[in-house]
Amino acid sequence: MIDHIQALHLAAGVFLLTAVGALWRRQLPAKVRLLVVQGVALAAMIGIIGAQRADLELLAVALGLGVLRAGVMPALIRRALVPLPQEQRETRPVVDVATSLLAAALLTLLAYAVTRPLVALDPTPITAVLPVAVAVVLIGFFTLTTRRRALSQMVGFLLLDNGITATAFLAAGGIPLVVEVGVSFDVLLIVLVLQMLTRRLRATVGTTDLNELRELRD
Amino acid sequence: MPTTLLLFAPIGLPLLAAVSQATGGGRRWSTAVGVATSVLLLTAAAALATEVTRSGPVEAAGGLLSADALSGWMLLVVGAVALLVFASGDRHGVRRNSRWYPIQLHLFIAAMATAVLAGNLGVLWVAVEATTIVTAFLVGHHRTRTALEAAWKYVVLCSVAIALALLGTILLYYAARHAGLSGISALDWSQLAAHAGELDPAVTRIAVGLAVLGFGAKAGLVPLHAWLPDAHSQAPAPISALMSGVLLSVALYAVLRVKLVADAALGPAYLRTLLLILALATLAVAAVLLLTQRDYKRLLAYSSMEHMGLMALGVAVGTKVAIAAVLLHIAGHGLAKTVAFLSSGHLLHQEGTSQIAQVRGLLSRAPVLGGVFGVATLALLGLPPSALFASELGLARALAADGLGWVLVVAFGLVLVAFAAIGTRTAGMLLGGPAAPVVPVDAEAPALVGAGVTAAPAGGAGSTVPAPRPRASESPSPARPARVDLPRTAAIPLVIGLIVVAVLGVTTWPLTDLLTAAATVAGGGS
Amino acid sequence: MTAVIASFAQVTMVVLGAPLLVGVMRQVRARMEGRVGAGVWQPWRDLRKLFRRQPITPVGTTWAFRTAPLVLVGTTLVVAATIPLLTTTTALDRAADLFAVVGLLSVGTVVLALAALDTGTAFGGMGASREMTVLALVEPTILVAVFALSARVGSTNLGQLVDATLHNPLQVMSPASLLAAAALLVVTIAETGRLPVDNPSTHLELTMLHEAMVLEYSGADLGLIELAASMRLTLLLGLVASLFTPWGIATSLAGLPLALLAFAAKVTVLAMVLAAAEVLLAKLRLFRVPELLAGSLVLALLAATTSFFLA
Fold it and tell me: Is residue A199 part of a domain?
């Protein structure tokens, strides 16, 4: 049937497509759903690498990360969603959607160019998928800078982080467990902090549109 | 004392204090706990410093924590600033019944101590990220619109920066794995230094660039610096003091550690160029924006950015003289900026406004407060005998000796611009005559009050309208006394802090050996 | 010899079958909407009526207006003779290059837009500008999507592409192929002016793209344009079918009848699916159309990068 490498490519494809989709869709709940799919794809990628190396620890890490990135964190972000209709759609972004999609394609090409030394250091079929992870990092960064809703920025941050985690596992087979636990815990706390700040924003300012915060200027 | 205990104490003591604060207790109890913890922290730091100066670097927890002369110096600065903040007992701007505030404060100090004592790039990263998380709520403490805006910007920008640093760390781990290291020790400072020659140059270049950009953004360097003025101006004064005084320096310490590895693996040219560009850009942005400042807390925040630019310049040069200057600058800036922010907290409480144009004649109205604020600003501007004068002189010498004469001219030109901006504004705030005698309320008063009140909105935006001003400030709140000054309990620690800055500027005894050892660790050759 | 007969058969089949295909689509839509429908032969009846009428040329138009329908039909016939619908080696095999075929299709669109501008009316100008916006995004998408498929084969000759898929059917399931298929479907819809990009039965100013350009045509000219539009739809659907489901394509003269039947079946099924989707989808607002097309371009680019770097 399909061997490990093809399955890895499929998971990587879903990983990248969900990132592009999060940039494309306007509805905030849809973006969170795409994040869930991306978390599952990330866990699948790590699981495939672990299955290929027959590494039980890696499989356990894949399971844990899947629960975290596909379950816990999107649930936290969903809690920051305000149930009112005017708060559920993206307000006009800094770069409109069509241009953002073209920018996403360019960022993917840029990722391929930038990761050439990384792939050259250890050319295996697994590291060949590195550009996809770096592309997701770049797309996350782009989402973060061009979107105006607090929730979209949280989604962008999570895209960034999913991409970095994917890089870690594709390049080096994961980072030391101590650091991995620390990183996951830190990211979880950041998402929690952002969620609480979003609720305070809604209570104090009345909207989660960050363009309304214009008082601190030089 | 066993070194393991010495390494765990600076982290464990604030954690214990945080736990003890969780059970509540009044302001006096928190102040007492805070002062006690920082005294113990400072003692442990001093003991650790003597230990490493005498017998070299020490390690604990399987290499996760380690200390050498450089960490010893940084830990001393952390302890001193913490002590200053707790001793001055300033809780102006802090909500009265906030239970979380002392806990978050102690967690903040614990995280900074962990970052300084980290023996491993991974632990350093986790600690720096922890400082962002803990300070997020401290910055947004006031729950006003502006505070929330500042907190949001702070969390998002710093998290993105730290994520970039994480990517750099992961890529460095990848390169280290390829050079034969494995497991947690692949990120160990000593291991990386030992195997630096075997790290792949292309991958290391990307990794180190990302790490420097990420940690540098946390230190207030361009391009991800936009959080700094907002966060430091909206946070309560003690938090601003800790962030400006120590957190920025700890982030710069992280950059310095990464530079040590990079220089061994790639040669000094790469990071030198990168840091020179970032430092000069930071100085330029800070100097230009200082010219337009109207808020004194923001003024102090941009001043921090300017100083971080200078320090980054020193790190870029990287020689022993330069690093010694940077370390002295860290100490002097830490203490002086803390005093400045703490006194600005009192100022805000007293004046009720943070606009520069609405504070006039401070020296005549509140001599102690004005004096402390003025002397702190003079110290920050680099006038002798401040430690910052000595460190800037050392930095200039290092730049000249390294053949970077043009950098020296540009940098100090920008410093001069900043000097002018800060100097004129502070002088405007401090100098000026005493308030006019209060006009007795009689039949004339309504007309005068009317004139005063109509003059106030016209002049309130920032222009100087001298004549009606004293009346305008009297009539809306005649109950405010003309002289409210800094209480003695708050003034004494601040004055002691300023004296230490002055002393450091003249001589570094008894810390000379520590400074030399730290500069050797980080400065390499000459 | 086989090639010449095959090309001839392709052209005849496309010319005769295209209006029938449009009729099938309209009938499917009618039935799904609960109407009786006009029957599958209605487009042929319309064409017969149009060809018997006298064409009227507006005052002030030049040769651009008069020659556009002819050039449009001409390029479409060349493409019909070239691309591998019934066999993989057609008479104009050397012209069956990806870039040449896309260029020919674009020539047709551009000529029509020029004719619309030539009329000097507001609707003509508006239709032309909208169509050019769509074309600017559609053309790179087709090129990149088929390029993605050609990376594996090492040649952009469409015949060789179909040949390679014939011999290795499982590679249709690879991510690059799937992404390219998605992109090509979106492009087919956009290029031929179907919902959700353009409504072929509307004449409202807000919603017209293709119809706005041909508003001034009448009689035989209009008949030619309608025929060309239906032929382009058949060709694009046939191209998608050949690239991704090449079963039944003849490799010798004896296999031609079977190839004809297979082609008719595949294209009819695709058209029925498209018609059903049209009933269920609403037309996209005009400023959202570039978003959809940019999205399909991204899919095509991802397909190309995937096939280059991961194959």
Answer: yes
Name the one residue in this structure whose structure tokens are 């073209």: A102
Nearest to A131 among C290, C298, C309 (CB): C309
Is A104 an 8 Å CB contact of chain C?
Answer: yes
| Phi/psi-derived region of residue B432, left when phi > 0, alpha when psi is between -120 and 50, beta in every other case | left
Domain total for chain A?
1
Among A10-19, B127-136, C188-197, the range scoring the smallest mean pLDDT is: C188-197
Report which of B247, B280, B257 is spatially closest to residue B211, judged by C-alpha positions: B257
Has residue A218 been placed in a domain?
no
Is 0.90 exceeded by the ipTM? yes
Tokens of B61: 């927890």
Instruction: Note whether C291 contacts A24, CB cutoff 8 Å.
Output: yes
- Burial class (CB within 10 angstroms; exposed 0-12, middle 13-18, buried 19+) of B403: exposed
CB pairs under 8 A between A and C: 51
Q: Which residues of C120-141 are buried (b: 16+ CB within 10 A; e: fewer)?
A: ebebbbbbbebbeebbebbbbb
Residue A84 lies in a domain: yes
Provide the mean pLDDT of chain B.
Answer: 83
* Count, residues in chain B: 526
> Nearest CA of chain A to the CA of B146: how many Å?
6
Subunits touching A (CB < 8 Å, at least 3 pairs)?
A: B, C
User: Residue C53's Cα: distance from chain center in Å?
Assistant: 27
Tell me the one-letter amino acid at B60: A
Judging by beta carbons within 10 Å of its beta carbon (0-12, 13-18, 19+), is residue C268 exposed, middle or buried? middle
Tens digits of residue pLDDT in A175-216: 888 788 888 888 899 999 988 888 888 888 777 778 777 777
DSSP states along C213-265: HTTT--HHHHHHHHHHHHHHHHHHHHHHHHHH--TT-BSSGGGHHHHHHHHHH
Domain enclosing residue A174, as ranges: 4-88+95-206
Q: B–C contact (≥3 CB pairs within 8 Å)?
A: no
Scanning B40-59 for CB atoms below 8 A from A yields none
Q: CA-to-CA distance for B134 and B101, rounded, in angstroms?
A: 10
Is A125's Cβ below 8 Å from some Cβ in B? no
Q: B170 and A197: CB-CB below 8 Å?
A: no
Residues 6+ apart with CB under 8 A from A26: A89, A90, A97
Residue A74 structure tokens: 């999107």
